[in-house]
Design brief:
The chain has 215 residues and is mainly α. The protein is built from six helices and no strands. It has helices at 4-19, 28-49, 54-79, 83-105, 110-193, 198-213. Helix 1 runs parallel beside helix 3, helix 2 runs antiparallel to helix 3 and helix 3 (54-79) packs antiparallel against helix 4 (83-105). The N and C termini lie far apart (99 Å).
């Protein structure tokens, strides 16, 4: 089994490899810098594992390698976020945990080892199934959101069209009202002019006509 000293070193390895993957909103330059850091930490981790032997060394290397793979997957997911990238992180983590669990089983023998291996595999299958369910749920939610947004967009467009039509009707109604008022005013003015004669009547009609033609 892994000694306390080995466990402490691998814990430090895990912390070091996870630091770069914690950054959010990475640029390409930040990604390359973090990826280089992860690779460098993996080399240090493997060098630290060399201080152990036999099964303890195998465990140390397995854990360091697994953490490096997970850290890389997390970096990729932060560089180009997507449900597929997040899914890959979960699968990578499940594989890393399975590899480490199988390595631990090698310290056993007989029936105990068989049980250990089966349990490790069962956990890996469960983790991957959960990862797939999580991705399918997230994709379904995204699809539903897109449909809702599109439906809202159509509804907004129809509402805008209805409002535009109402505005046109209102404008037409106001224009008609102005014309009707002008016509009515002209009719009244002309009627008043009929009480006059000669030039006075002519001037009165011209004045009434001029006023009725003004907006």
């Amino acid at each position: 089994m892994k000694t306390p000293a080995a466990h402490a070193i691998v814990l430090a390895i895990g912390l070091a490899l996870s630091v770069g993957a914690m950054a959010q909103g990475m640029t390409k330059v930040q990604y390359e810098t973090a990826r280089t850091g992860v690779s460098a930490e993996l080399k240090l981790a493997r060098a630290a594992c060399d201080s152990f032997s036999a099964h303890a060394k195998d465990l140390c290397l397995a854990e360091a390698s697994g953490k490096e793979k997970v850290a890389t997957a997390e970096l990729n997911a932060r560089l180009t976020p997507s449900e597929q990238a997040s899914y890959k992180v979960r699968l990578t983590r499940a594989d890393a945990q399975y590899t480490l669990a199988r390595e631990k089983c090698d310290d056993l023998a007989g029936h105990a080892k068989d049980v250990c291996v089966r349990e490790a595999k069962a956990k890996a299958v469960t983790a991957k199934a959960n990862a797939k369910a999580h991705m399918r749920t997230a994709v379904a939610h995204d699809a539903a959101y897109d449909k809702t947004r599109k439906a809202q967009g159509v509804a907004d467009e129809k509402a805008a069209q209805a409002q535009a039509k109402a505005d046109d009707i209102s404008t037409a109604a106001r224009t008609d009202a102005v014309k009707e008022k002008s016509t009515a005013a002209y009719t009244v003015a002309k009627e008043k002019c009929d009480a006059l004669a000669g030039d006075a009547k002519g001037n009165c009609v011209k004045d009434a006509t001029a006023r009725s033609s003004k907006p």
